[in-house]
Each structure stands twice: as C-alpha cells, then as structure tokens.
Write a structure and sequence with these properties.
Elements: H1 2-12, E1 23-27, E2 41-45, H2 47-50, H3 60-78, H4 84-99, H5 103-115, H6 121-129, H7 136-153, H8 157-163, H9 169-177, H10 181-191
Parallel strand pairs: 1-2
Helix pairs in contact: 1-3, 3-4, 4-7, 5-7, 6-7, 8-9
C-alpha cells in the first residue's frame, strides 16, 4: 500500500527525481489520532490502534491516514512553503482517491450543495491557503476542486496547483491552468 501510494502520488504531485526517502513512524499513544506533519517522516497510528480487518490486514482508517501522510509529505517536498492546511487538503484528497472516501467531507459538501451554501472558491482558497478562517467546508471544497482538476487536467493537476499555490486563487488558476479563477469555479460548479 505505501509503495503503491508513493509511486502514484509522486507522479501526481510532480515530485523531484531525487525526492528524499520517507521514514515510517508508528504511534502508539494519544498523538496517534492527529499526528503532526514532520518533514521526511510519515507518522501514522499503529494498526493496533487504528484497527485491523478480519483478514489480519490494517483497516481503512490506517490506510487513509497512511496515504494522507504520504501525500502531505510529497506535497511538502514539492512546495516547501505551502501552508499546513493546504498540505492537509492534499492528504485528504489523496486518501479519498487511493484509500476510500472521507464520508465526513463528502457529507459536508453534499449538505452545502443542497442548501446552496457553497463558498466561492476564492474564499475557500483564502481560508485554507492564506489563513483566512479555515473551515471544514473550505477544506472539503478544495479537496473537491482537486478531484475536478484531476478529471479535467490530468494526473499532475494537483502538482500544478501546488507549484502555483502562492498568491490568490485567480493567480493560481491563471499560472497553473491558464484560466481565470471565475472560469475555473464555473467549470467546477458544472462538474459538481
């Protein structure tokens, strides 16, 4: 699982050819629920804490945490100045894509969509990337945006977003995808 995720995500996140190896650290204490992002170290709860499947393999929670941490590490290597909240979104997106969906984020998006309360993407971007009031909805919208970008622009869309993440949403859209932010949002809304 770890090697497969590393290989898949390295291409998607545009890793440098000489990316450093990642150490795997298993936690057996209270920190295991929300491990901190430590450069170069994939830190996850031991499968003994995260749960085992009946066949003796690590459970879904372990797989999601492992893939999310690998993605966040590779994103950090690609964009060392990226804010921690954006790295978390990248991890959430990858975990949903490679290790099974995040029901809480899916429900957050579905409820906001039903109620007509989606944030404009530039506000979600500012909340997560520029530190303007991060929220579960803002993170869920950006993870959804990554799924959209992946489906439209291909497998390295997340890497393009990361490489151009400094600045506003419109600046990122123009530099990474050659469209203005409003057009990107319109495409995402139609895709939803």
């Amino acid at each position: 699982l770890a090697e497969g995720a590393y290989v898949a995500l390295c291409g998607e996140l545009r890793c440098a050819e000489g990316s450093r190896p990642l150490d795997l650290r298993l936690l057996y204490d209270a920190q295991a629920a929300a491990p901190a992002l430590t450069p170069g170290a994939v830190t996850v709860a031991s499968p003994s804490l995260a749960g085992w499947q009946p066949d003796g393999q690590p459970g879904a929670a372990f797989r999601r945490q492992l893939v999310g941490q690998i993605a966040a590490q590779l994103a950090l290597a690609t964009a060392p100045d990226a804010p921690a909240a954006l790295l978390q979104v990248i991890g959430d997106w990858a975990a949903a894509d490679l290790a099974g969906g995040d029901a809480a984020a899916d429900e957050t998006m579905a409820a906001a969509l039903r109620a007509g309360r989606l944030l404009p993407l530039h506000r979600a971007w500012d909340a997560v990337v520029r530190g303007g009031g991060d929220s579960a909805l803002a993170r869920a919208e950006l993870a959804s945006l990554l799924h959209f970008l992946h489906s439209i622009w291909g497998s390295d869309a997340a890497g393009l977003l990361l490489q151009h993440s400094a600045g506003s949403f419109d600046e990122m859209a123009r530099r990474a995808f050659q469209v203005d932010g409003e057009s990107l949002q319109d495409g995402w809304l139609a895709w939803l």
